[in-house]
Design goal:
InterPro entries: EphA7_rcpt_lig-bd, Ephrin_rcpt_lig-bd_dom, Ephrin_rcpt_TKs, FN3_dom, FN3_sf, Galactose-bd-like_sf, Growth_fac_rcpt_cys_sf, Ig-like_fold. It comes from Python bivittatus (Burmese python). It catalyses: L-tyrosyl-[protein] + ATP = O-phospho-L-tyrosyl-[protein] + ADP + H(+). The radius of gyration is 47 Å and the shape is rod-shaped. Strands 2, 4, 5, 8, 12, 14 and 17 form a seven-stranded antiparallel sheet that branches. Strands 3, 6, 7, 9, 10 and 13 form a six-stranded antiparallel sheet that branches. Strands 29-30-34-33 form a four-stranded antiparallel sheet, with no helix packed on it. It is built from one helix and 36 strands. By secondary structure, the protein is mostly beta strands. About 30% of the residues are buried.
Length: about 450
């Protein structure tokens, strides 16, 4: 940068030199939101200097030959200096706690002959909070002092000769702030200073996705130890886990702390990275509690993405109590090898299980009794006068005894196998049948 002063050349060089700083600035951290960066502005800053012959705006070059604007003051020959420099009005947005980073060089008073007692090696930093731009007048009594700023390293005439400056970096904090904006002011009390850059920023936790929940940009709290609790919003096709809403805390340093709770992908979707993607064709996910999509079970299909269940193929069914992960099934075939035994008006029936149980293990049997006329061959239901042992329907075993039949009558018995999906089928009933003629009724003496 260019360093100029109103001092005689025997105190500090007046030539326009490119000076190299001993320390360079660090890159902006991702958690900072910049409100002002004087080094990034290549046009005149036009800050207010009071009195006008105090601080002076100077153009220069940094170590990368980039043009920068600096403010310098070096009124060290006379006592009781009170030189103010005020920034333009800075809007703060929704920030409550502001950071001010100053980079500056300061001349060692011992290296300036004849200024003992009038030369200082500190300056003061102030701020004034306001809801609007108050113009270009500085009223010193409105400003609140933040701190006295001192240099860790000061430079001497020898450093100037080597074209090397010792750059100091100091960071101060303001807050909590409640108004729309503020001014910064720098008060020189008799030092030889070059204010190389002023950066004003606040910290926030940048938006992230954690456990399938979106946490928005969040400004840090007003106090250094404060934590801001933030509730997350589930990503598309996700929902909050029951009684476990996603939450995180934004720390004062702009860092998200350990997450609490989470979101989970809805039925028909599975997690992929930070998103929920739909199950592909031929796959399904029936519940948000399931982690991954599953392939459709046997005799079922899904012909679209994002399916929460698979549809059964033609002639196959799923019972209301069947979970979605079991195969679709069908009604059983007819019982086999139906045989009978007649004892007067009692008929015993026995049969073998069906060749095809439909893919289920809940097969039961039902017996239908019909009495048929001799002439026309018409049949009617036997009605409630007929008894069954052990029962007529819901038979778990493959035998039954039918009692109280009429003597010398024609009967047809149909034995049907049933399972959990038989009532869902509209297909023709499959059964085994036998026709018998009863004998003489038992005579009670």
């Amino acid at each position: 940068m260019v360093f100029q002063t109103r001092l005689p050349s025997w105190i500090i060089l007046c030539n326009i030199w490119l000076l190299h700083f001993a320390h360079t600035g660090e890159a902006q951290a991702a958690k900072e939101v910049i409100l002002l960066d004087s080094k990034a502005q290549q046009t005149e800053l036009e800050w207010i200097s009071s009195p006008p012959n105090g601080w002076e705006e100077i153009s220069g070059l940094d170590e990368n030959y980039t043009p920068i604007r600096t403010y310098q003051v070096c009124q060290v020959m006379e006592p009781n200096q009170n030189n103010w420099l005020r920034t333009n009005w800075i809007t703060k947005g929704n920030a409550q706690r502001i950071f001010v980073e100053l980079k500056f060089t300061l001349r060692d008073c011992n290296s300036l002959p004849g200024v003992l007692g009038t030369c200082k090696e500190t300056f003061n930093l102030h701020y004034y909070e306001t809801d609007y731009d108050t113009g270009r007048t500085i009223r010193e009594n409105q400003y609140v002092k933040i701190d006295t700023i001192a240099a860790d390293e000061s430079f001497t005439q020898g450093d100037l000769g080597e074209r090397k400056m010792k750059l100091n970096t100091e960071v101060r904090e303001i807050g909590p702030l409640s108004k729309k904006g503020f001014y910064l002011a720098f008060q020189d009390v008799g030092a030889c200073i070059a204010l190389v850059s002023v950066k004003v920023y606040y910290k926030k936790c940048w938006s992230i996705i954690e456990n399938l929940a979106i946490f928005p940009d969040t400004v840090t709290g007003s106090e250094f130890s404060s934590l801001v609790e933030v509730r997350g919003t589930c990503v598309s096709s996700a929902e909050e886990e029951a009684e476990n809403s996603p939450r995180m805390h934004c720390s004062a340093e702009g860092e998200w702390l350990v997450p609490i709770g989470k979101c989970i992908c809805k039925a028909g979707f599975q997690q992929k990275g930070d998103t929920c993607e739909p199950c592909g064709r031929g796959f399904y996910k029936s519940s948000s509690q399931d982690l991954q999509c599953s392939r459709c079970p046997m005799h079922s299909f899904s012909d679209r993405e994002g399916s929460s269940r698979c549809d059964c193929e033609d002639s196959y069914y799923r019972a209301p109590t069947d979970p979605p992960y079991v195969a679709c099934t069908r009604p059983p075939s007819a019982p086999q090898n139906l045989i009978f035994n007649i004892n007067q008006t009692t008929v015993s029936l026995e049969w073998s299980p069906p060749a095809d149980n439909g893919g289920r293990n809940d097969v039961t049997y039902r017996v239908l009794c019909k009495r048929c006329s001799w002439e026309q061959g018409e049949c009617v239901s036997c009605g409630s006068n007929v008894g069954y042992m052990p029962q007529q329907t819901g038979l778990a075993d493959n035998y039954v005894t039918v009692m109280d039949l009429l003597a010398h009558a024609n009967y047809t018995f149909e034995v049907e196998a049933l399972n959990g999906v038989s009532d869902l089928s509209h297909s023709q009933r499959l059964f085994a049948a036998v026709t018998v003629t009863t004998g003489q009724a038992v005579t009670l003496g």
